[in-house]
Amino acid sequence: MITLCGMTLSNYYSKVKLVLLEKGIPFTEEPVMTRSKDEAVLAATPLGKIPFIRTEGGTLCESQAIVDYLEARFPQPALVPADPLGAAKVRELCHFMELYVEWVARELYAQAFFGGQVSEATQASVRERLGRSLPALKRLLKLAPYAAGDRFTLADASAFAVLPTAAQATKAVLGEDLVAAAGIDWKAYLKLLGERPSVQRVNADRKRDLEAMAAAGR
Predict the structure, then answer these.
(1) Which domains does the chain have, with CATH numbers?
(2) Between 5 and which of 30, 39, 110, 131 could a Cys-Cys bridge form, CB atoms 3.0 to 4.6 Å apart?
(3) Helix, strand, or coil here: 41?
(4) What band does 218 get if pLDDT is binned at 50, 70 and 90?
(5) Are 5 and 54 within 8 A, CB to CB?
(6) Do 142 and 86 touch, CB atoms closer than 8 A?
């Protein structure tokens, strides 16, 4: 049995959970805070990052490595095309979104989601970099109707994790949804994904945990 470790509030945790659900893989969940200093956690994820998984054969960290492992171990239903180039194009989208959109927008998260502050210099840098990477992403995204074409793939798990989070962060801190401003209709796309039972489950579990945190006064 696979154990998914992390927090439902993490967008990358949601990415892995979505793939597990889409593939119908039995799994359990283990709450683990990010940046844990516990030696058992660091043995699995040396930087204390989440998510990571525990398997019968060992542990694995980094969300893309995890979903690639799940695709290889549980090939049906397939979440990448059988054609090698088609499969590579799906992974190209995953890497592009996460490296050039999510990791840039992440610099705003402290202010957007956690009550911190981000310097004006950082804000300007994020705006400039996303001003280049989001139009470039628009060239790669198919949205026909899914991220890589006419069926759900691993690229949709990444897009689910990246697009709304980046949009919300830029809106909150920069005063403008830079994802939408680049011509990426992420709201319509997210509505489409929201019809899938897997996405409904991920969203419901995250909402449950957000409400529990609010009730606890955290």
Answers:
(1) 2-73 (3.40.30.10), 84-215 (1.20.1050.10)
(2) 30
(3) helix
(4) low
(5) yes
(6) no
